[in-house]
Design a protein that fits this description.
- The complex is a heterodimer of chains A (about 250) and B (about 700).
- By secondary structure, chain A is an alpha/beta fold.
- In chain A, about 55% of the residues lie in helices and about 10% in strands.
- Chain A contains ten helices and six strands, in the order H-E-E-H-H-E-H-E-H-H-H-H-H-E-E-H.
- Chain B is α+β, with helices and mostly antiparallel strands and about 700 residues long.
- Chain B contains 19 helices and 24 strands.
- Chain B has four domains: about 180 residues, Immunoglobulin-like (Sandwich), CATH 2.60.40.1250; about 80 residues, Immunoglobulin-like; about 270 residues, no CATH class; about 120 residues, Glutaredoxin (3-Layer(aba) Sandwich).
- In chain B, about 40% of the residues lie in helices and about 20% in strands.
- Chain B is elongated.
- Chain B has a five-stranded antiparallel β-sheet with strand order 1-2-3-9-6. In chain B, strands 12, 13, 15, 16 and 17 form a five-stranded antiparallel β-sheet that branches. A five-stranded mixed β-sheet of chain B has the order 20-22-21-23-24, sandwiched between helices.
- Classes of the chains: A alpha/beta (about 250), B alpha+beta (about 700).
- Chains A and B meet through helix 4 and helix 7 of A and strand 10 and strand 11 of B.
Chain lengths: ~250, ~700
């Protein structure tokens, strides 16, 4: 009889431990936040394991001499960080705005970009994503980013992005010409836009934003007021969107 | 850095490098390490290492390595990174006394994440570097500006510079030398040392897929393939299949995207520690896979069909003479225990069903395990194993003797109390065991359905195997499940009485017959002496068990010892296989090479793959092959009947079956001038099918045989 009690007790303890240990994992840990000193009004997910230790922006050749473009980008971000982040996308109390930072040469960006596009298109206008090009991975990556921004000027950003994300490529002028032909774009205009100061400035603004948020690689994401580093999965993404929607924090509303 | 160095040149360099490093490493031990300061990031620790502690006098080259210790969860990429990604690059500007650096790429690992295929390295990689010096024997300085991409959930470019001064010195850093030679050995060679030969490579005209075949006389274990066809071309996940006793590797890769003119193809094949990179000439046609494509990646509907067939097959197995007794015993025991509650009855039959399915899962697990070990497995193959046969015979004979009333099987009292429920009803574990037993007995009764389903399972994915074996189990357990669903059925069975004694005797007789059949199979597998040994053992066992006066413990001990001894006999007494077969006149021994030769002389060859334990084969033989008109058709002068005896596992025959995607028998095929590749006959033969196939192979057309 005594032994039976001991066994039952042990079973209860084991079940309790098991429940404590495994059940929360099914629902996921609670997301905890850490307020950022800079930029003010933003926060990030606490305890990210990959937020420190890298030399910031190893891939971006930041000239040591003061670059007028860098200074202009910094001023733009200082003036209106929300506009720089989320663009002129529709505002409204009901819309959660996201800023995605990605690179065409980064494997996980493909996954994250596809996921975000799906979330945006399913939201019925209640989520809007502003796509930033953060080309950290060399010349091909820079060229692809410029081409994407140039395609946006022909109203073809989404199809261009989709094409680049589903194929493998080495970005060369010949490749870009072939893509624009197949998408019905004007390649001469695309080429001209790619070397325009506008696009250069746009890339610098994105780089400046990434610097302010301390992003060390791609993909990176700002959802409302929360900065996220790395590919985070569908569950955390939707959870964050829900939190941002519920809390209605005023930074960029 | 060259992207596709010439295979031969690289191999030569590599061999020299490995040999040199090893020779030097053995020769001396190191005090100071020839290692650069480390670059550390959360993703990796990078150093430049050299095997030599310095530039030795007269030395013209240094063996070095770019060593990366990669943190858990991070990876970096191969020279062809896959769909996206960036390979590491090194800029050597700023180095002194360096004429050139050859950067070698160890064979990569495949990473698949979210459907994206990437190739690279994790944990640790050392890129071997062969550094040639401008001035022999003079100090050198290595200045490596490294640019690489590391990814976990985030992709981070990592740029850093490593420098290493090489003074004039002699001696070897054994640890560094070992690391370099370890990874130098993983750099793909041209196929000579690794024994991997690429036999064909075909790019579809529409650039939809690449098909490659390779051979290795050592046999492949778990090969992977990494083709490179210019930076614009990427490939999807390969479909890799092995054939010809694992000596043949066939791979087909979808081409996901390509543009412009295709450069020369380079194919890297890895298999465990060995790897080869070859630039094969393109073939004109795709090589045929060693087994069929549609069985490889079946759709959901196809799996459902096959599962249904397996379910039916399982159900039919209940009617087989070797299974029927078990079901009947089970039902009889339910009749006997008339007083049992519905709940108990239901639980008992559910347990039996669970026993059946559990055994099927064990079979599925064994199949998966065997497949993982690279074995080819066929349904009923266990009947080639004398130990298994002996165990089955012993169990069957004991059950039969029990039914004839020679002894009562009763568990020790302590077991009984443990197994029995409080109300004194027999325990459920017995029900479980009887279910499992039924499943064991069912395996040799390979009905035609079963052959199809199991062949599908063996060539399919692991999930297919599990689905099929589960469906088989459910089919076999269906009668038990029916009784469990409606226990009232048992109430309608006749009351116990004298007829039960007769039933018992009849069932005992059936079990004895099955045992006798297994004896006959064993005679074929292990010889007459083994059969005699096992028979003697069984007789002694039954005698001991029926000695009721003997102390129970003693009796049980003696029985167990005897049983073990009996099981050992076939292994000891096993005879060498008979040198030649040919009990049937006119049948020649199967010789795969002979088929083509005979066909070229205008003969028709009829191949019958059979085995003593294959019941369907016996039926085919008795009902079709040994009867007219087939018998006389096979006896005609231009027909050569060939007998392949698979009773004892035979590699040549197994390979022959595999070449048709078959893993079980019966298997029959007809070759002739009009059918050099053979006409495959259905598992269950019919006279018409055989005659039509013979005429078809001869080239006479099917109508000629109509009369």
């Amino acid at each position: 009889m005594n032994r039976r009690k001991v066994v039952a007790g042990a079973a209860v303890v084991a079940a309790g431990y098991g429940g404590y240990r495994f059940v929360p994992a099914l629902f996921g840990p609670r997301i905890e936040f850490e307020t950022l000193d800079e930029p003010r009004g933003f926060r990030r997910i606490a305890g990210g394991r990959i937020s420190t230790g890298f030399a910031p922006f190893a891939g971006i050749s930041s000239a040591s001499a003061p670059d007028p473009l860098v200074e202009r980008a910094a001023r733009i971000v200082d003036d209106d960080i929300c506009g720089a982040l989320f663009g002129a996308s529709t505002t409204g109390s009901d819309v959660v705005r996201m800023a995605s930072f990605s690179d065409y040469y980064c494997p996980y960006c493909r996954v994250q970009t596809k996921r975000l596009s799906t979330i945006e298109s399913r939201s019925g206008g209640r989520i809007s994503v502003n796509w930033h090009e953060l080309p950290l991975l060399g010349d091909g990556s820079q060229l692809a980013a410029k081409a994407a921004l140039a395609a946006r000027r022909q109203g073809a950003y989404a199809v261009f992005q989709e094409r680049m994300m589903t194929a493998s490529f080495q970005t060369t002028p010949a490749y870009l010409a072939a893509v624009s032909a197949s998408l019905g774009l004007d390649y001469d205009r695309l080429e001209a836009d790619m070397s325009s100061p506008d696009i250069d400035l746009e890339l610098h603004v994105t780089a400046e934003l990434a610097r302010r948020f301390g992003f060390i690689g791609t993909p990176a994401l700002v959802i409302g007021t929360t900065a996220v580093q790395g590919e985070i999965g569908e569950r955390v993404t939707t959870e964050l969107i829900k939190i941002e929607r519920d809390e209605q924090r005023g930074t960029c509303a | 850095m060259r992207r596709f160095p010439e295979g031969r040149f690289r191999t030569a360099v590599l061999r020299r490098l490995v040999a040199g490093v090893l020779a030097l490493a053995i020769g001396s031990g190191g005090v100071t390490a020839a290692t650069s300061d480390a670059h550390r990031s959360p993703a990796l620790v990078a150093t430049l290492i050299t095997a030599e502690k310095g530039v030795a006098p007269e030395a013209t080259a240094i063996s070095a390595g770019l060593a990366l210790t990669i943190s858990e969860g991070w990876k970096t990429y191969w020279r062809s990174p896959g769909e996206v990604g960036i390979p590491p690059t090194v800029d050597w500007t700023g180095s002194t006394n360096v004429a050139g650096v050859e950067f070698l790429w160890p064979a990569p690992t495949r990473f698949t994440a979210f459907g994206i295929e990437n190739f690279g390295y994790h944990d640790e990689v050392v890129f071997p570097l062969r550094i040639s010096l401008l001035d022999a024997g003079k100090p050198a300085r290595l200045n490596a500006k490294v640019n690489l991409l590391v990814c976990s959930e985030i992709c981070v470019p990592d740029d850093f510079t490593l420098t290493l001064d090489m003074p004039v010195a002699t001696g070897i850093d054994a640890a560094a030398a070992a690391r370099i030679s370890d990874f130098a050995a993983r750099v793909p060679d041209d196929g000579t040392a690794s024994g991997i030969e690429i036999t064909s490579a075909f790019v579809a005209a529409d650039r939809s897929a690449l098909t490659v075949t390779a051979r290795s006389e050592r046999g492949f274990a778990a090969p992977d393939i990494f083709p490179e066809l210019g930076s614009q071309t990427t490939f999807g996940k390969p479909d890799i299949r092995l054939g010809d006793g694992n000596r043949l590797m066939w791979a087909k890769l979808p081409i996901l995207g390509s543009a412009g003119d295709l450069p020369a193809l380079a194919v890297t094949i890895t298999d465990g520690a060995r790897a080869a990179t070859v630039e094969p000439a393109l073939s004109d046609a795709a090589a045929a896979p060693p087994f069929l494509l549609d069985r490889m990646v079946p759709g959901v509907s196809e799996v459902a069909w096959i599962a249904l067939i397996a379910l039916l097959g399982g159900l039919i197995l209940n009617a087989m003479p070797c299974v029927l007794p078990v079901l009947s015993i089970k039902l009889a025991s339910a009749v006997k225990a008339h007083g049992q509650t519905r709940t108990r009855l239901r639980a008992g039959f559910l347990m039996s069903a669970a026993g059946v399915i559990a055994f099927m899962w064990i079979l599925a697990a064994a199949t998966l395990g065997a497949r993982a070990l690279g074995l080819s497995v066929g349904w009923g193959l266990q009947f080639q194993n004398p130990l298994f046969l002996a165990a089955m015979v012993v169990v069957l004979a004991l059950f039969s003797a029990n039914l004839f009333g020679a002894f009562e099987i009763s568990l020790p009292a302590s077991w009984q109390t443990r197994l029995a429920r409080a109300d004194g009803q027999p325990g459920l574990s017995g029900d479980f065991v009887s279910g499992a037993f039924a499943a064991v007995l069912a395996t040799p009764c390979s009905a035609p359905f079963l052959g199809t389903a199991v062949a599908f399972a063996l060539s399919g994915r692991p999930v297919d195997i599990v689905v099929i074996f589960t469906a088989l189990g459910i089919g076999l357990a269906l009668p038990y499940l029916l009784v469990a669903a409606a226990p009232g059925m048992v109430q309608r069975l006749p009351r116990p009485g004298r007829w039960m004694v007769w039933l018992r005797l009849m069932l005992g007789g059936l079990l004895a017959l099955t045992a006798a059949w297994l004896f006959w199979v064993m005679q074929g597998v292990a010889g007459t002496a083994a059969v005699a040994g096992v028979a003697a053992g069984i007789a002694a066992l039954v005698a001991i068990l029926s000695l009721r006066r003997l102390n129970q413990t003693l009796r049980l001990g003696a029985a167990l010892t005897l049983a073990a001894a009996t099981l050992a006999t076939p292994a000891i007494l096993r005879e060498a296989p008979p040198a030649a077969i040919g009990p049937e006149t006119g049948w020649v021994r199967f010789e795969r090479r002979e088929i083509a030769r005979l066909v070229s002389t205008g003969k028709v060859v009829f191949v019958d793959v059979t085995a003593d334990w294959c019941l369907t084969c016996k039926a085919n033989k008795a009902l079709v092959l040994d009867r007219d008109p087939v018998r006389s058709a096979l006896a005609e002068p231009d027909v050569v009947p060939m007998l392949a005896d698979w009773t004892r596992s035979d590699d040549a025959i197994t390979r022959y079956l595999e070449s048709f995607g078959r893993f079980g028998i019966p298997f029959n095929a007809v070759y002739g001038p009009a059918a050099p590749d053979g006409i495959i006959l259905p598992e269950l033969l019919s006279t018409e099918a055989v005659l039509d196939a013979i005429d078809g192979a001869r080239g006479m057309g099917a109508t000629a045989s109509g009369g």
